[in-house]
Amino acid sequence: MATYQLTINGQRREVMTDPSTPLLWVLREDLKLTGTKYGCGVSACGACTVHVAGVATRSCMVPVSMIGDRPVVTIEAIGQDPVGKVVQDAWVSHDVVQCGYCQSGQIMSAVALLKHTPNPTDQNIEESMGGNICRCGTYPRIRQAIKAAAQHLQ
Amino acid sequence: MIRSRTTGPRSLIVVCAAFVVCLVASPPQAEQSPASPSADRRSDGLAAWQQVYMVLTHQRCINCHTATNYPQQGDDRHRHFANVVRGPEGRGVPGLHCATCHQEANADSTGAPGSHNWHLAPLSMAWQDPHDQLLSSAELCRVLTDRSKNHDMDGSALLQHHAEDKLVGWAWEPGRGLNGLPRTLPPLSRPQFADATRRWVEAGTPCPPGQAGE
Predict the structure, then answer these.
(1) For residue A95, what is the DSSP state?
(2) Measuring CA to CA, which of A16, B60, B107, B125 is 20 to 30 A from B152?
(3) In terms of domains, do A97 and A68 share one?
């Protein structure tokens, strides 16, 4: 067991856990931030996506011991980000969500895309979002929402 | 020369002529030797190159020296899962960068390999052909020594890359996979690989003859 000082959504949080514990478990079980989801546990689905130092990161694959002082942002706080707010609004206006389980990760990946590529092409969207899996098949609406968000941000 | 009643100018001429004949009849020592130093040096270099080639074509190396728009993974060199793509700089794309999963060190608890500056080798340094076949020894040697393709690395820079680069070094500390088993290692240790590279470089980075596919 070890104690870690983490910066989560702008706040300093302290956890005591095994160094090999994936960040996802720390977020959900230690910090009760359950917006980030467990989908596969092997970084294949993207449901666990958060931002670590601004980089979309699969929290199920990164041990908490590797986070260090890099700031972590989860779905609970992404709406406080200007781009995140626009993406969330686009998700709502385009009625993207069905069951919703994958959507935290979808939104986090979409925000990462738009922060880097403000006017993404279909290929950009396909490549950046292609690692986020949606069993309900909301992909067309995800694409539309990303384009709408991009247009709003211009 | 002691002159005697029997030794005169004619005898001196004969002796000198015989000496000259002997000189002409004896070829230079180097041409007589069947293994000249330069031939030995090239032969040693080619032998060292074959050792280098064995490492370069191991999965730990070639999974990132791909000719494809994506990395490969595993000892069977299958396409990397999660639809990961190369991206414009070999670091993935926004939202799905290499760093999305690969951190500065191996995460054995989760099976994610990691090292400093995790990224793909540029397409100019692909060691496969477009059909996912390994380049031949001759072809790979030519690619590796082509300074228009290898980021202008000369022999000493190649040696430094092989011997000191952190990401290259990951190949010998690849951690454990998702199944908990250690990943396989290249056929030579890193010191052996560096030594083979050094011998190859010192021999002038010779490449074997042949064309692609041989």
Answers:
(1) T
(2) B60
(3) no
Whether A83 and A63 share a structural domain: no
Interface A-B, measured as beta-carbon pairs within 8 A, has a size of: 89
SS (H, E, C) A8-41: ECCEEEEEEECCCCEHHHHHHHHCCCCCCCCCCC
Instruction: Encode chain B (214 residues) as per-residue pLDDT tens digits.
Output: 434 444 455 555 555 554 454 444 444 444 444 557 788 899 999 999 999 999 999 999 999 999 999 999 999 999 999 999 999 999 999 999 999 999 999 999 999 999 999 999 999 999 999 899 999 999 999 999 999 999 999 999 999 999 999 999 999 999 999 889 999 999 999 999 999 999 999 999 999 998 644 4
Indicate the residue of A43, A55, A129 with minimum beta-carbon distance to B97.
Answer: A55
Task: Tell if the CB–CB gap between A62 and B110 is shorter than 8 Å.
Answer: yes
The enclosing domain of A28 has a CATH number of 3.10.20.30
Residue closest to B57 by CA, chosen among B199, B193, B177: B193
Collapsed DSSP state (helix, strand, coil) of residue B46: helix
Residues of chain B contacting A117 with CB distance shorter than 8 Å: 94
Q: What is the CATH classification number for the domain harbouring A118?
A: 1.10.150.120
* ipTM of the shown complex: 0.92
Q: Rounded to 10 degrees, what is the CA torsion of B64, B67, B73, B78?
A: -170
For residue A130, give its domain range.
78-153
- Which of A77, A96, A122 is the C-terminal boundary of a domain? A77
CA-based nearest distance A30→chain B, Å:
18
Total domains in the fold of chain A: 2
Q: End of a domain among A24, A47, A77?
A: A77
